[in-house]
Amino acid sequence: MSGQGGGGAKGVVRVLVEDSRGWVKTACGYVMLTKPRIIELLLITTVPAMIVAKRGVPSLALMAITVIGGALAAGGANAVNMWYDRDIDAVMRRTKERPLVTGDVSPTGALVFAVLLEVAAFVVLAVGANLLAAEIALAAALFYVFVYTMWLKRSTSQNIVIGGAAGAAPVLVGWAAVRDELSLAAWLMFLVIFIWTPPHFWGLAFRYANDYSDAGVPMLPSVASKRRSATEIVAYTVALVLVTLALGPVAHLGLIYEAAAVLLGAGFVWYAVRLWRLLTPKAAIRVFSYSITYLSLLFVGMAVDVVVRGH
């Protein structure tokens, strides 16, 4: 009897462990629906935009509210993106382990989760910051879902060019949270990220061009020649550097920011030209990787410039 009892206890423990693992796997799946790494990058641009708008450091409470609200809005939009794209995600090597493809999260669960995140984001921003910030975040999410994901992504090679507007919105949210209005400086910050998005994403798409072709997604590197794709990357990178230099005087930024814009921009152009010369997946991934470092340090440079100069 004691042996049977021991076996029964072990069985119960085994079931509990398996259940807990299942819950953890599902919870991780829901987190992955939000694309945390993308959210992290977007929020890196939000706080510096708030510091420039304030000409100093805003209250920690306002920064926390804006970051949380922005993360919820972006996470909800990303979750809908995964829900809608689960068919092509299953085809592509880069995305075949996403939670809706593996079955860790159900399609209905993902969609409900996404809607709840968007509602929460709007409430957090409207109550904690202001209505303008909440409206911009919601508009960006709707644009990402209905314009980029459901329309542009599968219909034109310019998908990420136009769709990049959604990823550029967090700086507008941050600025609006501080000032409750949008100025030319805010729109130039928006333009920086808008122009940055194509060379950033095309670097990745260059590496996975065959995946996009197999999935029927007309990302530029999957439908154009390597040379044309690389040329477009160089052109957008040069345009990006010019806009970052124009932002300095408009946003009343000083030498710290201008030095960062010049040095980081030179590095970006170098990697883009290197890709144009080599036309290899390895060179393309270098562009993609550097672009993340570039954007992060550029916006950190803005914040440091304002804080160090004290205005």
Short key terms for the protein model shown above:
mainly alpha, Farnesyl Diphosphate Synthase, 14 helices
Structural write-up:
This protein is mainly alpha-helical and 311 residues long. The chain has one domain: Farnesyl Diphosphate Synthase. The protein contains 14 helices and no strands. Helix 3 runs parallel beside helix 7 and helix 12 packs antiparallel against helix 13. The radius of gyration is 22 Å and the shape is globular. 47% of the residues are buried. The N terminus is likely disordered.
Tell me the distance between the termini. 78 Å
Number of helices: 14
Shape summary: globular
Order of helices and strands: HHHHHHHHHHHHHH
Our Rg estimate from Cα atoms comes to 22 Å
Helical residue percent band: over 70%
The largest β sheet comes out as: none
Please indicate the percent range of residues in DSSP E strands (runs of 2 or more): under 5%
CATH fold node name: Farnesyl Diphosphate Synthase
- Structural category is mainly alpha
Number of domains: 1
Uncertain parts: 1-5
Overall pLDDT metric: 92
How many β-strand stretches? Answer: 0
Compact description:
With 311 residues, the chain is mainly α. The chain has one domain (32-309): Orthogonal Bundle (Farnesyl Diphosphate Synthase). It has helices at 2-33, 36-54, 60-84, 86-89, 99-102, 107-128, 131-152, 159-179, 184-207, 209-215, 220-223, 226-250, 255-278, 281-309.
Fold topology:
Layout: H1 2-33, H2 36-54, H3 60-84, H4 86-89, H5 99-102, H6 107-128, H7 131-152, H8 159-179, H9 184-207, H10 209-215, H11 220-223, H12 226-250, H13 255-278, H14 281-309
Helix pairs in contact: 2-3, 2-8, 2-14, 3-6, 3-7, 3-8, 6-7, 7-8, 8-9, 9-12, 9-14, 12-13, 13-14
